[in-house]
Each structure stands twice: as C-alpha cells, then as structure tokens.
C-alpha cells in the first residue's frame, strides 16, 4: 500500500512518457538475447565474444546471500535492452520532444549552459545526446558514449574494459558484461586540467526493464577531472533493475572527483558496481548521494596501488518506508604511505533500513598507511533500522587507523530550542536533517546540492510529526 509520502515525494521525478520505443528486446537472458543485443550495437567480434563469455560466468555465480533479500528479481521478467525512437545527437533541437522534455524537467540543458563543460544524456538503453566544449576537444580530451569508444578507440577500451571490475567480481558484474548498453567514455590526456565538470545523466523510462550503462574514465598522469553522474526513473508496479558499472583509472599524480546523486524509483533494484585504481601520489574523491530505489547494494571501491596515493569518500543514504539501502565503501591499501578518509551518513524514516557496509584492507605492502572511517546514522522514528557492518583487515603494524560510528535520534532538546525561536516542529526537524546532511551537500556542485536538499525536503514532507 502506498503511503501519502510516497505519493507526494516523487512527482518531480515520477513523470513518465509512453513506453514508445523503436525496439525492445524480449524478456529473459539467453545466448540468443545477448547476441541480439550485440547485433543491435554493431559490436566488433571481440565484444560479442566477451558478452557471451560474461553470460557463462553469470550462470555459474550464485546470488549474494549476505545482504538484502533480492530473490524477487526474476531475469525472465526483465527486458535488458530498450532502444528509444531516436539517434545520438549533439543538438537538443534534434532530440525528440518527449525525450527532450524529460531532460528539460530534470534541468540538464540549463545546467549545461551555465556550469558544465560537457553533457551526455542516456534514455533507457541508448545515449541520445552528447556534447563537449571545443577547447577541451583541442586539448585532446575525449568524451563520448561507450559504443562510439568501442568502435573508434578499440585499443584503449580493450586495455581497460572490465579489467578494474572483472567478470567474476560478482554475479551482477557478469550480468553487466553480458548486456551492457550506453554509458560514458572519458579520456583526459597527460597534464590536462579539466576545470569545469563533465556530466552524464541516466534516465530509465521503460517498465519491466533494466539499465546497464558502462562508464570508463581514464585520467592520465598529472591530469585532473570532475565527473558528475545523475540517475532517476519513474515508479512502476513491477521491478526494474539497474546494474551499471563504473571503472576509473587515476594515473600517477592525477586527480579525479566522481560525484553522483542516485534517485531511482522505489520499484528499482540498484545493484551497481564502481571501482577506481589509483596511481602514485594520485587522489580519488567520491561524493555520493543515494536516494530512492527499493533495494540498493552499492559499495564504491578505491584500490590504492601507487605509493602516496589517497582516496576520500563522502556519502549519504536516505531510506524511507519499504526501502533497504545497503551502501558503503571499500578501500584497499596496496602501497606505502597511502591514505583514506571515509565520511558516511545515513537517514532512515517510516521503517526504512540503512546499512553501512565497509571494507578497509591495509596490506603488508602498505607501511605508513593512514585510514579514518566515520559513519553516522540518524533515525527519525522508532520503527526505522540502521546498521553498521565494518570489516577492517589490517596486515601491518605501521599504520594509523580509526573507526567511529554513531547512531541516534533527533534530540528533543534541540527541537524545543528551535521551536522557541519561532520554527514549527516540522521545520525544526527538517533544519536538523539538512544540517546533518550539510557536510555531504557542500561537497557537491551547486545544482546537485540544491537537488539533494530538495530531495531531503520531499522525503520529509508529511513524514515528520
């Protein structure tokens, strides 16, 4: 049964277009379906063979049993490829009106005009719009959709594609390898600083379908980039699946910041995979907001392979009634004097469940490593659930390591104080929640900080009291 909050809180994102596609593959997962996707994509032989191998791996691997129950997922009821009635364009005027209207409502063209160096927009299984500023093209920056990259930059793609996230990583990585479609490819040459962010936005419109975009970013030595990812989908009565993959390569002395707001609908199973390999004296920053989705299992990972490499993770999850968000972060220290800082927050209400699940591994090859983990959970009522499940695997004595966790409710004294200053009880609680989330929102680009605060307000509307 839908609550009033569920009816209210998604109407900015829950608009939907008619399921008006050029081609929708039949439901299920067979070699014939995978070969059909490969034909639709005009894959080279090596990619078709890779997809079929991935399907074999998928069929051998078991579903994870240690997290949320995802037994309701039935791949026989999921269409893994949906082609919209359009082709890739570099002009919004050439995008069909119903699809352009979707991205207009989400604010993507406007953000492109004011604060982005390039934009990619994916609708269902295809990238429908892509552009980048001319000065970046002149500096050798490549930003395109993955299908174009497979055709035009095959050697770079072959060297990196699903090497950071191998097929046997888990069952849904193998699924992704078999049916991936769309996504972004970014290559930043040595020494090039991309000062204005690039952004890709992924919109799933078709019911009973999946989105499996692949993002591959390579930041060469002494280069830097800020990449932003946004995701949303309208609500349907049946399960949709998101099993994307993000592979990030941050070479020596390079810098990458990867910011994302995931706001999937509450019938979505979000089983995404994100990993980064970080070189000598390089830095990888993650900023993550997880809203929406019925079940989420998402644990971005940094592998610190270069001496002096660093990573920082700043993330927030917000679970309402009927949601189980199992999120966290993983870091592996494989070299001396590496460092990691994790600042994770979660908010749960109306019986929602948030779990912070983490891994910090400091290998015997990482003397002088430093790692600091902080996770804080805020519960807005007595029926919500919050868990912290850290795994700390320290294999050398020469380390500095700390882990702290806090779980609490909103303080009645604080609410009383704010109400004595003229705020209503609802406004007082909302102010406390926004303050709790502020360390995350201040790390986001301004448009995304505004979106995150709007999401928090919408999630709270009618839910407090």
Keywords:
globular, 2 domains, disordered N terminus, 465 residues, 13-stranded mixed sheet, alpha/beta
Textual characterization of the structure:
- This protein has 2 domains: 9-298, no CATH class; 411-465, no CATH class.
- Helices cover 26% and strands 37% of the residues.
- It has helices spanning 4-9, 31-41, 45-60, 97-105, 108-115, 134-138, 146-152, 154-160, 171-179, 412-420, 425-441, 446-460, and strands spanning 21-24, 82-84, 118-123, 126-132, 142-145, 183-188, 198-203, 210-211, 214-219, 224-232, 240-242, 245-250, 255-264, 268-270, 273-278, 283-292, 295-298, 301-304, 310-319, 324-333, 339-348, 353-362, 369-379, 385-394, 399-409.
- A hairpin with a 2-residue loop joins strand 3 and strand 4.
- Helix 2 (31-41) runs antiparallel to helix 3 (45-60) and helix 10 (412-420) crosses helix 11.
- The longest helix is centred in the C-terminal third of the chain and has 17 residues, at 425-441.
- The chain is globular.
- Residues 1-10 have low confidence and may be disordered.
Which percent bin holds the helix content?
25-40%
**Basic shape:** globular
User: How many individual β-strands?
Assistant: 25
Number of domains: 2
N/C terminus separation? 20 Å
Number of helices: 12
Strand content: 35-45%
Summarize model confidence as the mean pLDDT.
Answer: 89
Low-confidence stretches: 1-10
What about the largest sheet?
13 strands, mixed
Structural class: alpha/beta
Task: Kindly provide the radius of gyration, computed on alpha-carbon positions and rounded to a whole number of angstroms.
Answer: 21 Å
């Amino acid at each position: 049964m839908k609550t009033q909050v569920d009816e209210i809180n998604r109407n900015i994102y829950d608009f939907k277009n008619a399921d008006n596609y050029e081609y929708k593959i039949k439901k299920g997962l067979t070699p014939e379906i995978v070969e059909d996707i490969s034909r639709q994509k005009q894959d080279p032989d090596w990619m078709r063979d890779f997809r079929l191998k991935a399907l074999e791996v998928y069929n051998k691997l078991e579903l994870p049993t240690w997290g949320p129950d995802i037994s309701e997922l039935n791949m026989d009821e999921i269409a893994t490829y949906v082609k919209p009635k359009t082709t890739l364009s570099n002009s919004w005027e050439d995008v069909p009106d119903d699809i352009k209207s979707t991205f207009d409502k989400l604010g993507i063209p406007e953000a492109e005009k004011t604060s982005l160096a390039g934009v990619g927009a994916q609708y269902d299984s295809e990238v429908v719009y892509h552009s980048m500023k001319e000065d970046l093209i002149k500096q050798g920056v490549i930003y395109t959709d993955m299908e174009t990259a497979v055709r035009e930059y095959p050697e770079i793609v072959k060297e990196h594609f699903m090497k950071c996230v191998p097929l046997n990583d888990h069952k849904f990585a193998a699924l992704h390898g078999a049916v991936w479609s769309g996504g972004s490819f970014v290559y930043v040459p040595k020494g090039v600083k991309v000062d204005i962010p690039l952004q890709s936005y992924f919109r799933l419109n078709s019911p009973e379908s999946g989105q499996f975009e692949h993002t591959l970013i390579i930041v060469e030595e002494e280069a830097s980039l800020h990449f932003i990812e946004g995701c949303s989908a309208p609500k349907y009565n049946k399960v949709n699946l998101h099993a994307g993959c993000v592979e990030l390569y941050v070479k020596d002395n390079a810098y990458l910041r990867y910011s994302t707001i995931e706001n999937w609908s509450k019938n979505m199973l979000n089983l995404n995979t994100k990993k980064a390999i970080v070189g000598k004296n390089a830095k990888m920053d993650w900023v993550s907001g997880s809203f929406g989705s019925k079940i989420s299992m998402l644990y971005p990972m940094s592998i610190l392979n270069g001496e002096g490499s660093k990573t920082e993770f700043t993330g927030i999850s917000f679970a309402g009634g009927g949601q189980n968000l199992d999120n966290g972060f993983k870091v592996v220290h494989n070299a001396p004097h590496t460092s990691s800082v994790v600042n994770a927050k979660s908010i749960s209400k109306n019986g929602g469940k948030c779990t912070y699940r983490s891994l910090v591994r400091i290998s015997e090859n990482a003397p002088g490593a430093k790692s600091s983990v902080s996770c804080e959970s805020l519960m807005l009522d007595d029926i919500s659930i919050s868990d912290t499940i850290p795994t700390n695997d320290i294999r050398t004595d020469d380390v500095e390591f700390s882990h702290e966790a806090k779980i609490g409710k909103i303080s009645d004294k604080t609410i009383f104080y704010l109400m004595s200053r003229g705020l209503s009880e609802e406004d007082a609680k909302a102010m406390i929640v926004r303050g709790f989330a502020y360390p995350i929102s201040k790390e986001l680009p301004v448009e995304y900080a505004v979106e995150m605060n709007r999401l928090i307000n919408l999630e709270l509307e009618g839910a407090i009291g």
